[in-house]
C-alpha cells in the first residue's frame, strides 16, 4: 500500500499539466501513487498526462467524459490505495518535499487531516495565504468544522492531506450534484465527524489563480449554485443532529458565501444576476447583524459597520447607493495613505 495517493483532476490545462506532474513525480517521498483523471479535455491535456505515465509507473490515468471536478475526484478516490490522500488541481503544483512533510506530520499522532499554507500564483506574482486567528496546533471535536464554517480555515480540498479510511469509515460522500462550492460542502462533511486535525505553518502548495477557465474569475449563472451547497451543508448538519449547536456558524457561512463574496456583483455590477443573488440572500431570512462572527468581521472599522448595515437593508437601490459610497471612501483613504 502506498503511503499517499495523489489524485489529480485535469480539464483543458495543457499549458500547466507538465509542471504539475513534474512536481509530483519529483517528490522526496517516493512511496506514492499518482492518479490523474482527465475530465474530458478537448485540448492536449490527455496527451501530456500519457507522456508522463510512460516514464513513471506510479502514474495511473483515468479518462472520463466531462463530468466535473468532484466526479473526477470521486473516480480517483475509488481506485486509490494510499493510506492518505491529497487532491491536486492539475494546473497547480507542490513544493518538492510537500508530501514527505505532510505524511510525517500525519503519522506523529495519527491525524485524520493535516492542513497547511499555500501560495496564490498570478502570472509571475506569488502571494502567501493567510490563516486568520489560527495558532498552528491540533484541533479536535467540532473545532475544525466551526473554523471551516467561519472562514478561518480554507475549505479547498487541495489544502489538506486526508486519511483515506476516515472518509471510508464515516461514509462521507462526494457532493456531485453541486456545481459551485463543492469543496466547502465536502470539507464541512469531514468536520461533522470530529476529525483529529493538525495545522502546520509551512507553505507547500502553489495555487494558480490566473486560470482563464475558472468560474471564480467570471460572472456566471453557476454562482447561483452556491445556495445548493449551503443548503446541502444545512441538511447534513440536521441529519447528524448538530445543527442547533452550529447554527450561528452556519448562518455566517451562508452570509459569506451567498452574499459577502458576491457583494461586488450584487451592488456594483449592472447584470442580470445582481438582483437574483440579492433576493436569494434575503429569502434566507438570516438576521446577520446579531451574529457574533459578523460583528468580528466588521468591528475593525466603525465606518464600515455603518455602511454594511445599509447594505443589508431591504431596499436594493439604497443598498447599492451606499455600497458605491463605501468604495469611494476606500479609494479616498488609500489615496491619503500614499501621499
From TrEMBL:
Q: Which UniProt keywords apply?
A: Glycosyltransferase, Transferase
GO MF annotations, alphabetized: glycosyltransferase activity
Q: Does the keyword Isomerase apply?
A: no
Glycosyltransferase 2-like domain location is: 5-134
Q: Which Pfam families match?
A: Glycos_transf_2
Specify whether Lipoprotein is a keyword of the entry: no
Q: Which family does it belong to?
A: Belongs to the glycosyltransferase 2 family.
Protein name, per record: Glycosyl transferase family 2
